[in-house]
């Protein structure tokens, strides 16, 4: 136990947390260090460069069925449980949707009693902390690991493995086989740390293993400077998380991170596999599934081939059958700038043997394609894994997996029928859809205890283990008392958020206003700028026709921009500057309030989401693969204003468009414009007076007093093609926003819509998603 606890007097919040954490770890969890692995069940490993779990204390207490009693005891001793729980660090080893999905999946794997584990990296610095200074984003390092380490983890130094980079490849011939030796490689130690992931009321404990890089003692040259250099070169591998979301940066360090993860992870998996005496290498597909979270861990394909061919001496065909039977790949984006392509020279230099294997995979695949008669050069340009001196990782991932899935219906369909059409023709049964989900335990039971309790009062507890039972709420759609209580709960959650914001930023918010929320990474395609254009329009209305604003609104933004994504940072500046002006304009007072909350993260989301009235899901159709914030807000009784994109489409299928504010052009139209280049934002501008006024504000000095301040944004819309079709969708967005305010005036009808949304949100529980992966991809029996 920490020495800090030995002082006398009442314990500080963080000290109580230390006590709770060690109690859970030491007393309630089985001691795994010596435990034999359970080999009766097939093991699933979810490989991901990102995990975004947020805090664990509440989740763990909930899963152990101790949350309520623990809160009571704390209160009885005059502690505020919320304050204690909030003193836990928020582990931010991910950027956004992709990493958060990985964490929800681990939660559901354990809840459904599957042996499903995570494999990730233990970055010393997680996603940067964001400050806003002079309306600009400033990034500060997120040193998330405390002085005493991270309370939930356990180090397994004795199970460290070695990872090799570089060296000179020498081929030979021995026992009738080609052999490959790497001479003089750089060797780096990978140390595993395990974080327990608990199942809900089922005593299951799975693990998230995160790896840390270290130099290998004894290997270093003696001279201090050379020694320090080697040490740095090793440690830098797990020093920081790349802060890019849906954007690929071809840095050698990132490539080294990726290989480090897959090589370390695979060694651990195989060691554990062979701990069971009766396991033979050919049993791998029966005993093991590996899911790769986007292409970031796709090097596991050639790595597994290397191990099987070079170490286990299997023939190529045998090894290939095992590899492709074990691995499956999830694609999370269609954006061209996010698709990974590693330059051949980099891979050759860092991973010479792996490069040869990729070449061989590609050679055999191209022959197979040619044999089928698709030998024209266009097909090869689309299909070849190595093309124009780059390795196309998505192609490698498709060829080396038995199943490829997208993350919502529309996304999977574009993936299969457009982006990867040549591949789906070649592998007609390989492509499938698995619509994303979220953990209803974390995002409803933990984040919104008032609503969770109310739901249980109405329909019992079954929904907690069978979230689709939330549909039983439909019985109450016309019950005025229920609707009134629902509204009271939203109100209480809004007060909770308002108090928190007041305490942290000093900002006053009018609780009775409509809370209009857009929280997600900042990206052009997510169109925070469209939201802002509507706000600028409303600002004009405040001046010209104030009576038209019938419902006061609070616009809440939370968004981090990748440090190198300048356009995204400019939009943050614009939002903050507009917020400052509007919030001090007497004519907007009591009508419009705009907030940019700095440092949006998982813990903040847990406060904001239960308080949202409107959820903004306004991406350019076809660009947002799924979205998961949309699901979280739906489950917490917000209504969605959204385009027909990602999982919004399934959402409208469940609740019908009557209970959803739909607007904007459809994916086919966007894709057609992109093909034919005939979109003209200027034409739209010329015909829409509202738009002209709004865009003028960007260059007339009314935001910062400086007329050139936002010229770049103005130009991007009017003269640089408006890549994300903001002007095209502006009119229908303003119209549907007007419907929002009209409908909000009728509280009962509004609450009825909220109830219908909540009732159908069980479909978006990640328990449903994981059940589908389990039966359709991993071959697991529930
Ligand atoms: C990032 C880099 C490369 C490739 C993909 C990404 C990526 C995709 N990062 N986050 N995503 C999001 O993943 C979520 C979970 O599937 C989706 O809901 C969301 O639409 C993606 O943008």
Give the strand tally.
Answer: 25
What is the third-level CATH name, the topology of the domain at 440-665 and 726-760? Answer: Rossmann fold
Please bin the fraction of helical residues: 40-55%
What would you call the quaternary organization? single chain
> Which cofactors or ions or other ligands sit in this model?
1-beta-D-glucopyranosyl-4-phenyl-1H-1,2,3-triazole
Radius of gyration, CA atoms, in whole angstroms: 27 Å
CATH class value of the domain at 440-665 and 726-760: Alpha Beta
Low-confidence stretches: none
Q: Residue-averaged pLDDT, rounded?
A: 95
Pfam family, one: Phosphorylase
InterPro entries: Glycg_phsphrylas (IPR011833), Glyco_trans_35 (IPR000811), Pyridoxal_P_attach_site (IPR035090)
Family: Belongs to the glycogen phosphorylase family.
Catalytic activity: [(1->4)-alpha-D-glucosyl](n) + phosphate = [(1->4)-alpha-D-glucosyl](n-1) + alpha-D-glucose 1-phosphate
Could you characterize what this model shows?
- With 782 residues, this protein is an alpha/beta fold.
- It has a domain of 261 residues: 3-Layer(aba) Sandwich (Rossmann fold), CATH 3.40.50.2000.
- The protein is 46% helix and 16% strand.
- It has 32 helices and 25 strands.
- The strands form six sheets. Strands 1, 4, 7, 8, 11, 12, 13, 14, 18 and 19 form a ten-stranded mixed beta sheet that branches. A six-stranded parallel beta sheet has the order 22-21-20-23-24-25, sandwiched between helices.
- A hairpin with a 2-residue loop joins strand 9 and strand 10.
- Helix 5 packs across helix 32 and helix 20 crosses helix 31.
- The chain is globular.
- Bound molecules: 1-beta-D-glucopyranosyl-4-phenyl-1H-1,2,3-triazole.
- 1-beta-D-glucopyranosyl-4-phenyl-1H-1,2,3-triazole binds next to helix 5.
